[in-house]
Amino acid sequence: MNVIDELGILALSTRLQRLSEQLRKDGALLYKTYEIDFEPKWFPVIYTLHHKQPLGVVELATEIGYTHPSTISLLKELEKQKLIRSKKDKKDERKRLVQLTAKGEELIAKMQPVWQLMTRILSEVTDTENNLLKAITEAEEKLKQQSFIQRALQAAASN
C-alpha cells in the first residue's frame, strides 16, 4: 500500500483523479482498439449534443457541468476535428448554437457499440458492496446543498 492509499479520506480527491485517469486511459485504448479516433475528454460534449441539439454554449456548459472556458476549449477542439459546427442564433445574435456535423453523427454511430460495452464493464467494476456510482451521486448531492469550503469554514468557526 502506498502513502496515498494509506491516507484514506484525506486523499479522496487524489484517488478519484487517479481512478478517472485510469478510466480515461483505458477508454482511449478501447476506442483505439475499435479504430475510432476519439478523445475521452470530448465525450460529455459529443454525447450531450447527440441527445440535445442545437445548444447554446452556456446551456451546454451547464448541461455537462463544466465551466464556460473549459467548454469553449473542448468546442474549439471538436470544431477543428469537424465533429461540431456552430452558428449564430437567429433570435439572439450574441448567442452561438452548437450542433453535430454529419461527421460527428457518423462517429456516434461507430461509438454506440463501444459505449454499450463500456456501460457493461463499468457496471461490473462499480457493482461493489458500496456501489461507487451511487456513492458519487450521494456525495455530489451533499456538496450541492453545501460546498466543501462552506462546510470547512463552518466547522472551523465552531471549533
Short description:
The protein is mostly helical and 159 residues long. The protein has 8 helices and 3 strands.
Structural overview:
This protein has 159 residues and is mainly α. The protein has two domains: 32-127, Winged helix-like DNA-binding domain superfamily/Winged helix DNA-binding domain (Arc Repressor Mutant, subunit A, Orthogonal Bundle); 130-159. It is 67% helix and 8% strand. The protein is built from eight helices and three strands; from the N terminus they run H-H-H-E-H-H-E-E-H-H-H. The protein has helices at residues 3-7, 12-33, 43-51, 57-64, 68-80, 102-126, 132-145, 148-157, and strands at 55-56, 84-88, 96-100. It has a three-stranded antiparallel sheet. The model has no long low-confidence stretch (mean pLDDT 93).
Estimate nothing, just give the exact number of structural domains. 2
Envelope shape: globular
Uncertain segments are none
Distance between the termini: 33 Å
The strand count comes to: 3
CATH homologous superfamily title of the largest domain: Winged helix-like DNA-binding domain superfamily/Winged helix DNA-binding domain
The number of helical segments is: 8
Helix content: 55-70%
**Topology pattern, helix = H, strand = E:** HHHEHHEEHHH
What's the alpha carbon Rg, rounded to whole Å?
Answer: 19 Å
- Portion in beta strands: 5-15%
Averaged pLDDT: 93
